Amino acid sequence: MAGRAKYIIEKQSPPVTYYWGPEVDRETARSIGLVRFFTGKPCKYGHVAERWVSSGTCIECVLQRHRTPEYREYVRPVNAAWLEANPGKVDQYNEQRRDRRENEPEAAEQMRAASRAWHAEKSKDPEWRAKERERLRKYA
Ligand SMILES: [Zn+2]
Question: So which domain of life are we looking at (predicted)?
C-alpha cells in the first residue's frame, strides 16, 4: 500500500472490541455475498472488528487511518480532482437520495437509523458537541 507508513495508528494493547456479532469466515462471507466478515480475532493493531472481504483489511484500522491529519491532507487534492472530473455527480447523488427518501419508506427509515447512529457516535465527543452547540446557536 502506498504511503502506509504515513498513517500510523495506535496499537491497542490489550485488544479493544469494536464489533459484537456472529463469526463468519472470509470464504463463507464471500460465498453469500457479504462485503465484511468477522473472525473474533484481533488485527495486528489490536482491534477486534470486522474486516473487508475484498482486501482482508480491518475496518477499524481503515477508519482510524482516515481520521489522521496526514490522511486528510493527502486526500484533499484527490477529492478535489474527483469533483472536477465528475461535475454534477454530487448533485445527482443528492437528488437520488432525496428521491428514495421521499418514495421508498424502507430506505427512508434506513437513512434515519444511520443518521441517528452517526449522531449518537458523534455526541460522545465533547469537542464536537461544543462545536455543534455553537453552530446551532445561529438558528435558535
Ligand atoms: Zn485494526
Answer: Bacteria
